Amino acid sequence: MQTLTSADGTTIAYVHAGAGPAVVVATGAFNDHTTCADLAALLESDHTVVTYDRRARGRSGDTTPYAIEREIEDLAAVIDVAGGSAAVFGFSSGGNLALAAAAAGLPVTHLALYEAPFALGTLPARPADLPQRLTALIADGRPGDAVALFQTEGVGIPAPLVEQFRSSPGWAPLVAIAQSTVYDATITSVLGVPTPAMRAVDVPTVVITGAQTWPGLPESAAALAGLLPRASHVVVPGGADHGIPAEATAAVVRDLLAGSPAVRDVHHQA
Prior knowledge:
This protein has about 270 residues and is an alpha/beta fold.
């Protein structure tokens, strides 16, 4: 991995691969640059693809105080090393971040938003005080409880399933990046509904959902596509449990970058 220094001095780790028009990948909660590695590998044959660890996770650092603007600055720095402008693929809360970054004026050429959890359609809003409660738990030396709280109230996973997961080997890596839950909770609450500036983003955009994803996300995606000037909603096969079916999703991203009418003009594709 390589590193860059963001505007506030935070070290951001990234992987730069491929050649051609640039695509930057911004992932979501509990994710690092490896989350979309399969998707990135499929795009690298004819695109420059930059995946990165968002702050407070993976090999990236962190600097206080946190603000969404700092994450937008991180993304701006990653776009710069990608070539100065780029399409951005945003997964989950990374999709909220990507749309906000485009609204802030970053040189984003296209947007691919995969299951960004906007509180639209039937998808409920996140509790406004969730970032504060997560911060309090972490400050009290209870990062595991912060992770559990984010999973139940930030993601919507039933509490019994979260309790079962706490005894699994996969729990410790989440606890290690518990601070990042504050940031994802902030993004999905403050930017839980697109702002007027976000709704005005006028770049080619595709909003993607998996056919087997969690309830509420398809309705949210369809509503989001209807709010944006140049957006379409595409459903890809698979995608159980909020996962990304890499091959089908890569095909949609390629169509977006090629200006395919199927992506450009259709708001709802089953």
